[in-house]
Specification:
The longest helix is centred in the N-terminal third of the chain and has 23 residues. About 45% of the residues lie in helices and about 20% in strands. The protein contains nine helices and seven strands; from the N terminus they run ααβαβαββαβααβααβ. Helix 6 crosses helix 9 and helix 8 crosses helix 9. The structure holds S-adenosylmethionine (SAM). The site of S-adenosylmethionine (SAM) has 24 residues, from helix 1, helix 3 and strand 2.
């Protein structure tokens, strides 16, 4: 598939799934972090995940930060408001720019954030520009993950920090034939074209190849599990009533993922990781 087609499909997928994200996740498009020590609501867990980004980046008010795959601006507006940093948010999804700008205006942080329509594999920023870069649940959409990471390395200052909150999957031979079929259907329908490059215990090697050092991986699937479990509760009835019986998984990738990925995550076939590194 060529790049033009990829971005058309990606835009269609996010337009189609917009209502779901708005209704079930208040416009955010990432999972929450549930600490083991206390009970929190999904909304609180979402904020804890966003604070974890700041913690992993050791964010300060002096930092210029890239949010690569900014979605509707939920994370960047929160970080700019709480930590005072300046942020460039990029996305190739047209409507997300408008939504993010509206949110920044509402939260009075428009002077701290700039949103642009841009592909993280081909950015218009100059070399050695950012103090920090973060991604949350976006890199499996890359057309070419090695090119994306090289771009991150190029635009990051020497000594700059990255924090990537991303899934990895087990090797193909660990999945059943049925699981592989589901994985392929969901990743195709949601344009996760490079999911296959995110393998457990291997992605850190890809980061090193791109020039990053001090690469650390933390596996936080257990903290994210309740967030996925919550979505599963909403999805389970429609999934077993009509999506699965009529083979409609590609038409309803998010409903399918909420049910089927939950089972795979329980078996350790899908993990949620935080990768940190420096240039
Ligand atoms: C699951 S959403 C996560 C959005 C946001 N990080 C959040 O957590 O709310 C995936 C996002 O990836 C971004 N994305 C996908 N492909 C991209 C690309 N080639 N360049 C930049 N961003 C991209 C889009 O902004 C999309 O909303």
């Amino acid at each position: 598939m060529n790049e033009k087609e990829h971005f058309e499909r990606l835009n269609k997928y996010y337009i189609k799934s917009k209502a779901g994200y708005d209704i079930f996740l208040w416009g955010s498009k990432h999972f929450g972090f549930y600490p083991k020590s206390k009970k929190v609501t999904e909304r609180e867990a979402q904020v804890l995940m966003q604070d974890l980004v700041a913690k992993k980046l050791k964010l300060s008010a002096d930092d210029l930060v890239l949010d690569a795959g900014c979605g509707q601006g939920v994370i960047s507006t929160y970080l700019a408001k709480k930590y005072g940093c300046k942020i460039e948010g990029i996305t190739p999804i047209h409507f997300e720019i408008d939504k993010a700008n509206l949110l920044a205006k509402k939260l009075k942080v428009s002077d701290k954030i700039n949103y642009s329509l841009m592909d993280y594999s081909d950015m218009e920023f100059k070399n050695n520009y950012f103090d920090c870069i973060y991604t949350i649940e976006t890199l499996s959409h890359s057309v070419n993950i090695r090119k994306t990471l090289k771009e991150f390395h190029r635009v990051l200052k020497k000594g700059g920090r990255i924090a990537l909150f991303e899934y990895t999957i087990a090797e193909d031979n660990c999945f059943s034939k049925y699981e592989i079929k589901i994985l392929n259907k969901v990743s195709h329908a949601s344009t996760m074209d490079s999911l296959g490059d995110f393998r457990h215990d291997k992605f850190q090697g890809t980061l090193k190849e791109a020039g990053f050092k001090d690469v650390i991986v933390e596996h936080i699937s257990e903290n994210v599990g309740p967030s996925l479990g919550r979505l599963r509760k909403f999805a389970i009835l429609p999934y077993y009533l009509f999506v699965k019986p009529f083979g409609l998984q590609e038409k309803f990738p998010n409903v399918t993922a909420a049910v089927e990925f939950y089972k795979m995550a329980k078996k350790g076939l899908i993990r949620y990781n935080i990768f940190t590194a420096v240039k």
